[in-house]
Specification:
This protein is α+β, with helices and mostly antiparallel strands. The protein folds into two domains: 42-70 and 83-125 and 141-287, ABC-type transport auxiliary lipoprotein component (Rossmann fold, 3-Layer(aba) Sandwich), CATH 3.40.50; 303-451, Porin (Beta Barrel), CATH 2.40.160.20. Helix content is 22%, strand content 43%. The protein contains seven helices and 15 strands. It has helices at residues 2-25, 42-48, 88-99, 110-127, 133-136, 237-258, 273-286; strands spanning 57-61, 65-66, 102-105, 146-168, 171-190, 196-220, 223-234, 303-315, 324-334, 339-352, 356-370, 377-388, 395-407, 412-423, 439-451. The strands form two sheets. It has an eight-stranded antiparallel β-barrel. It is elongated. It comes from Chryseobacterium soli. This is Curli production assembly protein CsgG. Keywords: Cell membrane, Lipoprotein, Membrane, Palmitate, Signal. One of its GO terms (cellular component) is outer membrane-bounded periplasmic space. It holds the Pfam family CsgG.
Length: 454
């Protein structure tokens, strides 16, 4: 009995050591961490490395707030915490400082500043009555030639969600993800006449992911072994807001150079052409960007030729059907980006083991529909009619199918597909028996060559 207890203690200790090792492997925190300096985003470095202006621009920010009214999503009751940090004005001022293009002046809490200056004046008047009056006066406040307005105008939850998982014999693993998105507008306003000089718009996704693994199995009738491990990671909203604001500041600087709104700050200088060219390329690329940070293009041309290797199996009136290998070649002509007309010829073998075997040459015509014609990866569906020629009289059929296509190059795509053939008669193999027409199923792997340039 004592040996049994010691054995159980040993296995428990070993299991805890394994769990600790897994925790270290996955980088899970196990000790308190010291406070650190704030993380930099990718745009922090870009802002700091911008070419400097001839003269800095004095700029004021009264209010750059969360205008979404969005609260954090909660599964259990109401959550009155806001989804967006409320210190976005401070984040914007830090980005302006990092760019070294601007002299930000205090305007968010201007009342505090004016009150403190009044205290200074009163104190000097009270205790420095005999001093020189010029030494008592305060220097004037800086005034801004440009004001920055705008804010975080949108927080969209669950823009994209998904996951993947599998479980077999008590062992399972799964992963899930969720994407939120924030949107920021920033505009520059002239204090001279109130004209809105420039407005820029940026967005940033916020990613949350989780990975989980589990083991659940009965070792014996009364013994159950169960184990779980998981990791969840959420992108900090504050960093996402910071990155979006820094991108907006950079965009404002570059577009301001293009439209010559910075005046003497860049007058007569040509040091910014490479910066403008880079930004222009990004704008051109962004023209095709869609939600989910996808960049669809017109990958497919009007005409293509293809070749498939197919595995075919017939369902007919005999037993013992056998899978055979065949092939298909054809041409496609696109009537529109999504629809194309296909003509093909293929070789089809019908076989029932030790009973019947017959080969057919089959021309087909299909109408095909591509679900995402402007993406590299697209599902597709098709249907049409065909004729089966052998030594006997031809047979006629209809077919439907579908598959997946992936562009591996500008003109080359890989395809996997499945096709279901439905006969109009019941005598493909020369026997009429049963209620159902002869039919077959095919699985294909092929290559599609698009002719011409995009």
């Amino acid at each position: 009995m004592r040996a049994y207890i010691y054995t159980r203690i040993f296995f428990c200790a070993a299991f805890l050591c394994i769990m600790q090792a897994c925790s270290s492997l996955l980088g899970l925190p196990s000790d308190p961490q010291k406070s650190t300096m704030g993380e930099n985003t990718s745009y922090t470095t870009e802002l700091k490395n911008l070419p400097l202006p001839k003269e800095k621009v004095v700029i004021g920010v009264y209010k750059f707030r969360d205008q979404t009214g969005q609260y954090k999503p909660s599964e259990n009751g109401n959550n009155w915490s806001t989804a967006v940090p409320q210190g976005t004005t401070t984040i914007l001022i830090k980005a302006l400082e990092d760019s070294r293009w601007f002299v930000p002046i205090e305007r968010e809490n201007i009342a505090n500043l004016l009150n403190e200056r009044q205290i200074i004046r009163s104190t000097r008047q009270e205790y420095l009555k005999d001093a020189d009056k010029t030494s008592q006066s305060l220097p004037p406040l800086l005034y801004a030639g440009i004001l920055l307005e705008g804010g975080v105008i949108s927080y969209d939850s669950n823009v994209m969600t998904g996951g993947l998982g599998a479980r077999y014999f008590g062992i399972g693993a799964s992963t899930q993800y969720r994407q939120d998105r924030i949107t920021i507008y920033l505009r520059a306003v002239s204090t001279l006449n109130g004209e809105i000089l420039k407005t820029v718009y940026t967005s940033k996704t916020i990613l949350s992911t989780s990975v989980n693994g589990s083991f659940f199995r009965y070792i014996d009738t009364e013994r159950l072994l169960e184990a779980e491990i998981g990791l969840t990671q959420n992108e900090p909203v504050q960093l996402a807001v910071t990155e979006a604001i820094e991108k907006a500041v950079k965009s404002l600087i570059v577009e301001g150079i293009q439209d010559k709104i910075w005046g003497k700050a860049v007058e007569g200088t040509t040091d910014y052409q490479s910066l403008i060219d880079e930004y222009t390329r990004e704008q051109d690329k962004n023209m095709n960007r869609t939600i989910g940070d996808r960049m669809p293009e017109n990958y497919r041309q009007k005409l293509s030729v293809f070749a498939n290797v197919e595995g075919q199996k017939v369902k007919d009136d005999y037993v013992g059907t056998t899978m055979n290998v065949g092939g298909k070649v054809g041409v496609k002509y696109f009537l529109s980006p999504s629809f194309n007309l296909e003509l093909n010829g293929n070789y089809f073998t019908l076989e029932n083991k030790n009973i019947a075997k017959k080969s057919y040459y089959v021309p087909e015509i299909n109408l095909e529909y591509l679900l995402f014609p402007r993406y590299k990866f697209s599902p597709y569906l098709y249907g049409g009619l065909g004729a089966m020629f052998s030594k006997e009289s031809p047979q006629y059929k209809g077919q439907v199918g579908g598959g997946l296509e992936y562009m591996i190059d500008n003109n080359v795509a890989l395809r996997v597909s499945s096709q279901y053939d439905i006969g109009f008669k019941d005598d493909w193999e020369g026997l009429i028996k049963g209620k159902h027409k002869d039919q077959s199923i095919r699985f294909a792997l092929g290559v599609n060559f698009y002719i011409g340039k995009k």
